[in-house]
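Hello,

Following up on my earlier ticket. Below are the two sequence lines again, exactly as submitted.
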Amino acid sequence: MYNGGKIIAGLIIFIALVTFPFYTNMGKTIEKPADLAAAPDELHIGDLPIGQMRAEHMMLLDKWRDEVVRGGQRYITYDGDEYEKSIQNGCLACHSKQEFCGKCHNFAGVNPYCWNCHYSEEEGLL
Amino acid sequence: MKIDRRKFLKLASCTGIGLGLSAADIFKDTVEASSGHSAVSTAATRYAMVVDVRKLQTAEEYQRIVSACNKIHNIPTLIPEKDDIKHEIKWIWNDTYGHAFPDQVNYYHPEAFKQKLFPLLCNHCDHPPCVRVCPTKATFKRPDGIVQQDMHRCIGCRFCMAACPYGSRSFNFVDPRPYIEDKNPEYPTRTMGVVEKCTFCSERLEKGQQPACAEASNGALVFGNLNDPESEVRKILKSNFSLQRKPELGTMPSVFYVIGGEEYAG
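Thanks for your patience. The regenerated structure is below:
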């Protein structure tokens, strides 16, 4: 084999890079957020079951942001109470960014760019 | 099909007339806009602001208006001085008579007046050029006349900044967060790469509040519905001489400046 040493060295580097995500995470257990299983059928603001809210909240937020920014409909009435369709004044009024949003986002390894502009008072500007 | 000379001329003239009519239709808007006499909004609501500069005298009064806006909207004010020209973000700011009204060529205006500052902000034009050029429709005009910007859709192309004749738009060249002095947790910040501008405090209007600048101005800035003949803005405009910025461009600004005589120039 011509240039055998270089080819084999190259292959080793290639395989090391490709399998990088596997061996860096090997043996580590990332804990699944415990309360993920809780009350999936209970209704959340916006008439979505909580289970669906977990899976599809990004679609709901997308819809709400268009309604607020482009339609001027900032409030939603649910169960007699009025809520603001807003991350900072709505979602984060009840949920904690780190404890609630962050737990799942970290587990799923997503970094939504919502937080580039929207922020929580507890965390401040990061 | 054989076509004789007579038939050809008939067809050609019909085509010519048709083309002429459609071209006239296309250019109608352009001609109207450039003449500055285009149709004005007849919607039930057209939000507008009257700036009564006679009521603004001290530097503190001017600053209070700008600071109120900066604080409520998380506007970065701590940008280092050397980067200021490029990176400055402004929704409402103060500038001189010459910069505010470069079309006012009367050089016999009172000297004291030429030294006076004017609070400048987005004019929320009835014919906003920024809306016409936005390729993603991130900037749009609401039915109530507010020229709104959807930050989620802005791609940072800065066409609107080139189109705006009033310099009312600022671009976030850097992440603004480290430069925010006094943060308001009820309002988002912006991210690097989007354009921003005054929103007439649309989020406050929905709660029945006045725009922050108007609230902080002690009555110097009056906000209201221009299409309501009984509104305060209309009453002020009816009984006072007022200026608009660069009205000859046909943008139909919704911000008016009530100008007093020399005794008012601070």
